[in-house]
Amino acid sequence: MRLVLPFRAALAAAATTAAAMGLALTGTGTAQAATPLPNHVFAPYFEAWTGESPAALSAQSGAKHLTMAFLQTASKGSCTPYWNGDTSMPVAASTFGADIKTIQGNGGDVIPSFGGYTADTTGTEIADSCTDVQQIAAAYEKVITTYDISRLDMDIEVDSLDNTAAIDRRNKAIKLVQDWAAANGRKVEISYTLPTTTHGLADNGEALLRNAVSNGARVDVVNLMTFDYYDNQAHDMAKDTQTAAQGLYDLLAQLYPGKTPAELWNMVGVTEMPGVDDFGKAETFTLANARTVYDWAVAKGINTLSFWALQRDNGSCAGGAAADNCSGIEQNTWDFTHIFAPFTGGGTTTPSNDFSVTLSPASGSVTAGQSATATVKTAVTKGAAQSVKLSVSGAPAGVTASLSPTSVTAGGSSTLTLATTSASPSGTYTVTVTGAGAAGSHSTTYSLTITGGSGNQCTATPWAKDAVYTGGQQVSYKSHTWKAKWWTTGEEPGTTGQWGVWQDLGAC
User: Fold this and answer.
1) Is 364 helix (H, G, I), strand (E, B) or coil?
2) Could you tell me the pTM of the whole model?
3) Are 141 and 27 in contact (CB under 8 A)?
4) Of the candidates 33, 105, 119, 42, which has an alpha carbon nearest to the alpha carbon of residue 73?
5) 342, 344, 455, 496 — which has fewest CB within 10 A?
6) Among 47, 157, 189, 283, which one carries the catalytic annotation?
7) Homologous superfamily of 354-451 in CATH?
8) Residue 157 is a catalytic residue
9) Which range, 168-172, 334-338, 405-409, 439-443, has the best average confidence (pLDDT)?
10) In this structure, are residues 141 and 147 in contact, taking their beta carbons and an 8 Å threshold?
């Protein structure tokens, strides 16, 4: 029941005072109010440590709003947040500033999120780390004014859920920020992202909200992580989302007796994990589940739909375990995004036209020097046919990929040709074909196996079971390049799962 993030080695950083940050909670920040978020918003999480552009992925996927994960201190005891706890990524226009302005210019926005599993288990969640309520509040204010945003998210789980002193500090700081925002003509919303059972919050999550009420801190949205239940039970993930949210609604009705049912449901958010979650295939959120949750969310009028995370919304590792960059199920790229995106603004409309892209066959094996072909099929899935531009990516060195034709009308087909040479490296590679149209883009993959090749594309040192590796080191193993996220020895690449030590950098 948690958002799990890769462990990052602690980075040295000195605590700074509110004055050093150039902030005060008496109105020195800009009084210009950011554009409020819609009453109903789809805002998937964006993994900010990957080096990717949030603006580019927002445009590619069609997700106009993103929840940016995560902000945390570089070391325990610090009062200065950084993106991912990385001192090279400060809260400044130089870090994501241009991307965020682009997203805002396109009619969207971002929700910076403090905390996350790594911060919450290493004492680097800012309220766990910093004991000065004023400095915590100043840090929140700096994020708001630097990026001109209207909502902050607090991702509080595991150890942070039981740190009662930090919970109290955080809620006191939130109250200070809300008072500052009101005095400066700003609307600032606060969401709490919390783990859940299938029937609502656990006791510590409930205690966190009760503390917020006692401190006068307004909680606008309670966002449930409706995955990673780890209860060894059979799961209908869509049904579990609904029962978890109903339990939250019942609690909110107790905490806020003056609110109407519609107002209470508009305090509810849900975050799914597309495909296979960290527990395993017994907890798989399918595309059919997503459609059910979408319809339910529209009917109930909840505030926020989200999922963890945008970079996972593809089927490049179908049949596998949970991973940072794929869902583990058969799907086109951005399928989950396209289902949830119409929720923003009210969820009353759906794309008028859409299409699909498939390959037949979806895999093949050739001897180096030969060619493999497959038919790229497109089909109209909603509305009328549209022009679809086709492209191919992921071909390994020594392989030439081509499409004929490169543009079709939905319902038409193209031929993918993968030409190898005798020097092509042996191995199995994933080649992606993407179709882009006015409704967005869809992708499908082809698994190419090359035998008898004389080339060798893997340049990293082969993995050795008894060797010691530290964060950032790369190895080659089973025709893939892998990067260690932290210190490790004896852990076989490809077996440690999404949150394990080895990050798959792709075929080599």
Assistant:
1) strand
2) 0.68
3) no
4) 119
5) 496
6) 157
7) Immunoglobulins (2.60.40.10)
8) yes
9) 168-172
10) no
